[in-house]
Amino acid sequence: xxxxxxxxxxxxxxxxxxxxxxxxxxxxQNRFDKVTxxxxxxxxxxxMLMGAGGNIGVSVGDEGVLVIDNQFAPLTSxxxxxxxxxxxxxxxxVMNTHHHGDHTGGNENFGKNxxxxxxxxxxxxxxxxxxxxxxxxxxxxxDELNVHINNEQVAVFHIDNAHxxxxxxxxxxxSNVLHTGDTYFNGRYPYIDLNSGGSVxxxxxxxxxxxxxxxDNTKIIPGHGQLSNxxxxxxxxxxxxxxxxNVLKAIALGKNEDEVVKDASITKTYDDLGYGDFFINSxxxxxxxxxxxxx
Length: 295
Prior knowledge:
- It is built from ten helices and twelve strands.
- The protein has helices at residues 4-30, 76-84, 101-104, 107-112, 121-127, 200-211, 230-252, 257-262, 268-271, 282-294; strands at residues 38-41, 46-50, 56-59, 65-68, 91-95, 116-120, 139-141, 144-149, 152-158, 168-172, 177-185, 219-224.
- Helix 6 (200-211) links the parallel strand 11 (177-185) and strand 12 (219-224).
- Helix 6 (200-211) packs antiparallel against helix 7 and helix 7 (230-252) crosses helix 10.
- The protein is globular.
- The N and C termini lie far apart (55 Å).
């Protein structure tokens, strides 16, 4: 049996743990308190919302509201407030471009509000591991899907093993707006989630596929970064292909991962342009490319 000293120590440890958990929870909530949702009008009924996390696409009209991605759960009320300034209709459909929490964190809240959640098959499989039933996509697809809403066809198509294994790009066929999800990080190195089925080659193919539906007037909502266009999207593809070429050359010369990471010439052109000033820096992008291309 425990003596009094052991009980007191255990009690003190539990108290400290409780304080720690409360502090962490408070800080996690508090970091969203100052987030504001910025709304950019793209067409008469299509908008881009920026806050914290992945960029959101919104279609409004008489048939209801379509939302593409929903950032983090604590931001749901702010996101809904922003949408309410655009439409008095309910959110009818929520589309997830992939499974990461900065794009799907609000699923549970939107599901409870009656929205139908849609995503690729693999998104549901991955969300099933950590999410309640109400947060899961109820309609999934394997390759392509067409959503007809607000007098417009939204073409949804999947690219294999790009940012993850469940990526979807959405193209508003009348509005000429493309939402790329995280298969495009505007002006920055992308995160390619190799542990979730992503790959360099698949990522490049995703950008090529997205460019196929673009013209000089297409408005592009990237997963992260500012609203974009075809020229910037092409620059992003050129960056990816340049890094791939440079890393493959280094691998052919017999360089190992650490040697590739130390080789500043591989990414110098784009480091100088600020591509590594965000979440994925020069070192991380070289490690990602090396690991994906070496295998």
